[in-house]
């Protein structure tokens, strides 16, 4: 059933398509279309953890290849924190293969700064340091001019705001995530940022 919805081709490229949304696209497809249609000559990289949000993002993006035509790739970071980490890595690789999407994974946690480091992440939480390591991997993997898509949604947006508020961030620091953002030269796009998680769950 899934393969009937998905296009295939080198680097996930199914050829050029129209410059306007095809009829019948659902809300999630239209959200991704709006975010990436002007980048159809570039490779779209999806940050793919294997969870519901990133899986839906990968599937929805893949479903648009026949309409737009673009290169598509799945990127996964395995920090090795849990006994299931390698299973998740294998799961992500398998899903990408089933969708006909090239997969690039990183298995090492050696590039995560330690809590005792003197650098910018000294004293930061393990999650914050891991996030920094992931984005370094993404920045190395994504070519200049190409995109990184993440599955952040409206619920994540609210959580980010509340966490910053609890930590006593300044008014400027309370600013939430943006739909499009450039981080150290890496173009990050969050197509689902205005949609609640419940909307994504319907696609899973």
UniProtKB/TrEMBL annotation:
Catalysed reactions, as listed in the record: cytidine(34) in tRNA(Ile2) + L-lysine + ATP = lysidine(34) in tRNA(Ile2) + AMP + diphosphate + H(+)
GO biological process entries: tRNA processing
Domain tRNA(Ile)-lysidine/2-thiocytidine synthase N-terminal: 45-203
EC number per UniProt: 6.3.4.19
Record's keyword terms, sorted: ATP-binding, Ligase, Nucleotide-binding, tRNA processing
Nucleotide-binding keyword on record: yes
Pfam entry (one): ATP_bind_3
A GO molecular function held by the record: ATP binding
Tagged with keyword Thylakoid: no
Enzyme class name: ligase
Descriptive protein name: tRNA(Ile)-lysidine synthetase
Native species: marine metagenome
């Amino acid at each position: 059933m899934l393969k009937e919805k998905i296009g295939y081709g080198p680097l996930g490229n199914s050829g050029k398509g129209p410059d306007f949304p095809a009829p019948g696209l659902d809300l999630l497809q239209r959200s991704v279309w709006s975010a990436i249609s002007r980048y159809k000559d570039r490779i779209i990289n999806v940050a793919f953890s294997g969870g519901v949000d990133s899986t839906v993002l990968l599937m929805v993006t893949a479903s648009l290849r026949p309409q737009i035509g673009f290169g598509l790739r799945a990127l996964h970071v395995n920090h090795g924190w849990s006994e299931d980490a390698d299973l998740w890595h294998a799961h992500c690789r398998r899903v990408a293969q089933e969708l006909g999407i090239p997969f690039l994974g990183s298995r090492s946690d050696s590039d995560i700064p330690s809590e005792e480091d003197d650098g910018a992440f000294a004293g930061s939480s393990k999650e914050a340091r891991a996030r920094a390591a992931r984005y370094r991997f993404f920045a190395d993997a994504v070519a200049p001019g190409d995109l990184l898509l993440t599955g952040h949604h409206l619920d994540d947006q609210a959580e980010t705001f509340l966490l910053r508020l609890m930590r006593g961030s300044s008014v400027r620091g309370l600013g939430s995530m943006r739909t499009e953002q450039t981080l150290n030269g890496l173009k990050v796009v969050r197509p689902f940022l205005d949609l609640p998680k419940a909307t994504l769950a319907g696609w899973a």
